[in-house]
């Protein structure tokens, strides 16, 4: 039995003439808000306020940034504004001495016990320690 595999699944269906459902909602919402402004405000003020609304609605409907819809950029912008930000790096001022080195705490040495039970155990222990200090990413070999 043969089944037909759907194609072009990332393309939305055109429901209202040349517009998709989302585009139609954005345009109708922008025009509806402009009409409400024209009804309740003087004409000059309504034009000034409704022009950015109509431009924003048409950008939501038709404009794409790097192949992604404009609404995803607006969503990312709002998420960035409203969520907490985590700053990892913080500059620390250091006093510079004559030799050019900063006066920070001296580096602490890590105590490494000497394993002498067998050479094989000692080698495997060294390999484990060095791998933990400099982990290898799985994709680093494929980039060489």
One letter per element, helices H and strands E, the order comes to HHEEHH
Low-confidence runs: none
Rg over alpha carbons = 31 Å
Shape: elongated
User: Major sheet, described briefly?
Assistant: 2 strands, antiparallel
What's the arrangement of strands in the largest beta sheet?
A: 1-2
Percent of residues in helices: 40-55%
What is the number of E strands? Answer: 2
Contiguous helical run count: 4
Describe the structure.
It is elongated, with a radius of gyration of 31 Å. It has a domain at 21-82. It has four helices and two strands, in the order ααββαα. Strands 1-2 form a two-stranded antiparallel ribbon. With 144 residues, the chain is an all-alpha fold.
Keywords:
144 residues; mainly alpha; two-stranded antiparallel sheet; 4 helices; 47% helix; elongated
Secondary-structure map:
Layout: H1 21-40, H2 43-62, E1 64-65, E2 68-69, H3 70-82, H4 119-133
Antiparallel strand pairs: 1-2
Helix pairs in contact: 1-2
In brief:
The protein is mainly α and 144 residues long. It has helices at 21-40, 43-62, 70-82, 119-133; strands spanning 64-65, 68-69.
């Amino acid at each position: 039995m043969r089944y037909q595999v759907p194609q072009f699944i990332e393309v939305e269906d055109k429901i209202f003439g040349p517009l998709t459902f989302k585009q139609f909602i954005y345009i109708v919402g922008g025009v509806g808000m402009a009409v409400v402004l024209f009804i309740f405000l003087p004409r000059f003020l309504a034009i000034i306020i409704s022009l950015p609304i109509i431009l924003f609605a048409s950008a939501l409907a038709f404009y794409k940034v790097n192949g992604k819809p404009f609404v995803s950029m607006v969503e990312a912008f709002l998420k960035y504004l409203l969520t907490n930000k985590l700053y990892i790096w913080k500059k620390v001022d250091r006093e510079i001495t004559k030799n050019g080195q900063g006066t920070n705490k001296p580096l602490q040495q890590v105590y490494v016990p000497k394993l002498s039970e067998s050479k094989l155990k000692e080698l495997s222990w060294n390999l484990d320690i060095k791998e933990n200090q400099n982990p290898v990413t799985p994709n680093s070999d494929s980039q060489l």
